[in-house]
Design brief:
Elements lengths: L1 H19 L7 E3 L3 E8 L6 E9 L7 E6 L4 E4 L10 E8 L6 E11 L6 E11 L8
Parallel strand pairs: 2-8
Antiparallel strand pairs: 1-3, 3-6, 4-7, 5-6, 7-8
Length: about 140
Amino acid sequence: MKKLFILLVIATTIAAMPASLKANGPVIDFTLERIDLGTLYADQLPEFRYSIEFTNNGNAPLILTAVRACCGTRVVSWPQEPVNPGQKGTIQIDFRLSPRAQRVNRTVTVSSNDPNQPTSIFRIVGQIVDRSAQPPR
């Protein structure tokens, strides 16, 4: 009987562990993981402006310490104040693409005080094709 009681206590402790290991602190959660531009034609490229939305799904204020972009992508704005639990934030970016056939693979790197994911990478992907190189339909 004593062994059964000890076994029951151990099983209960193990079952309760995931709840006790739940992340404390801020948690950054992007609305979309990436933007897929699809296929674009080199002779019709607009200037792109996007809002990258995220939510703090944690239980402490989320602080973005740095937001960097690569490859000619410009970070226009990002929250300078803490984003409280349950609130949303927005990172504004814009960029232009060269009018030539190429694969698009841009990144925006977000550094924050999220203990489980201190660096998050948001991707922008797509393909630019030359219309004259496309076979007629």
